[in-house]
Amino acid sequence: MGFGGISIWQLVIVLGIIILLFGTKKLRNLGGDVGSAVKGFKKAMREDSDKEEDAPRKNIGQDDATFKANEQTTAAKTEQKSEQNTDSK
Length: 89
What we know:
With 89 residues, the chain is mainly alpha-helical. Helix content is 91%, strand content 0%. It has a domain at 37-81.
């Protein structure tokens, strides 16, 4: 018993009929076309995943800059309050 109830001999017969109908040259070209399509698909998927990984990295740098600016503003406000408290005493 082969694949899903199809025996090896049935697969060989089907393969022989396909070769007779299309010829080996067309089958070779078809195989090359399918291979290049798979390669292109893998490359596109790799590029998409690289873009997704790069996007958060850019945002992290912006978030760090925003955090530092807010930290400096908070430190300045705290310093002003402490000066006001010492002046009022």
